[in-house]
Amino acid sequence: MQKMIKPKMLKWGDTVAVVSLSSGMAGDEVYRHRYELGKRRLEEVFGLNVVAMPHALLGSDYVFNHPEARAQDWMDAFADPEINGIISCIGGDDTVRLLPHIDYNVIARNPKVFLGFSDTTVNHFMMRKAGVVSYYGPSILAGFAENAAMHDYTVQHVRQTLFERRGRIDILPSPAWTSEFLDWADASLNDTARKMNDDARGHVVLQGSGEVSGALLGGCADVFPLFMGTDVWPQPDEWDGAILFLETSEECPPPNYVRYTLRNMAAQGIIDRIAGVLFAKPMHEKYYDEYNEMLKDFFGREAGRPGLPVMANVSFGHNAPMCVLPCGVAAQINCGSRRLAIIEPPVE
Predict the structure, then answer these.
(1) Counting Cβ atoms within 10 Å, is residue 219 exposed (0-12), middle (13-18) or buried (19+)?
(2) Which of 148, 245, 273, 343 could be bridged to 218 by S-S, CB 3.0 to 4.6 A?
(3) Do the Cβ atoms of 119 and 223 come closer than 8 Å?
(4) Are residues 278 and 221 in contact, defined by beta-carbon separation less than 8 angstroms?
């Protein structure tokens, strides 16, 4: 895989820009309180100065109708020397519409921490095309604006990954998780903590043995079909030795939907090239067993790679809490100890 540029780590007092690159709901009156909560957490928990880019909070209708304005906000945030990092407000379903408006040279010349997940997957692949490491993790509305308080697990991983230059970050399983729905439109629920579920499983190794390492590359499986074949989708050889990480969205796609995406990747020659796979705990644990059986059947039988390490039930994606996965940075899967770690500094 290509050599990636690492952004400088964030520090107390830095300025971060917030952007709406897909859904514009952060600017809708009914959800604005949640945006303000996430903004306050960035200020109080992480000591950051938060600025909204000009079009980020103009609401769902405007943001949907103006993908060029979304892209301009993102480009301007990279180009502004006073801005140290960029965080996505929320995902959505049409980040791919930004593709005609992206200047990859702007990103490459101004590497900065960029954080988000879900439909923001497309932006992470844009960053990869520009040769810059990005970070798959919480967004303003989903993560930083967690009801009652941010989860300690999420706070720890944001700090370790973005605010420290650690040579190794152990990604331990979260001992508890939640996907309880509390209506974001109801500001009276901001101080109501979501119900947590104990998780005694930890990381689950579906197949494989020993230890493997490789650069992280992946995102939300629901989103992959939207941009396969575009100029940000990597060529097969760009997946050589990568650890593919996949999660599924709140739409809880059936296991065969993910299988069909993997079949496409196999037909491209990608599955033969990767070194390992990480699969996130599915939202609500819906299809938990079915996903695992599908993954074992696909990789072990259909793709003919029964020895490929596949680790499931990892804490990233649409459940809470979530870790941060640095895209383009080396990770290590240890099948015997069921341990996962980032094994090089994710920031400069």
Answers:
(1) buried
(2) 245
(3) yes
(4) no
Query: Both tokens of residue 185?
Result: 């439109």
Cβ-based neighbour number of residue 3 at 10 Å: 7
pLDDT band at 1 (very low <50, low <70, confident <90, very high): low
- At residue 53, the 3 state secondary structure works out as coil
Alpha helices, DSSP H only, in the chain?
Answer: 32-46, 60-65, 67-79, 104-109, 121-130, 152-162, 224-227, 255-267, 288-297
Q: Given pLDDT bands bounded at 50, 70 and 90, which one contains residue 3?
A: confident
Burial of 93 (0-12, 13-18, 19+ CB in 10 A): middle
The CATH class, in words, for 176-342 is alpha beta
Degrees (nearest 5) of the Cα angle 220, 252, 245? 25
**118: phi > 0 → left, psi -120 to 50 → alpha, else beta; which?**
left
pTM over 0.70, yes/no? yes
Enumerate the CATH 3.50.30.60 domain ranges in the chain, comma separated. Answer: 176-342
Instruction: Tell whether domain 15-166 is in CATH 3.40.50.10740.
Output: yes
> CA angle, 136 as apex, 218 and 88 as ends, to 5°?
125
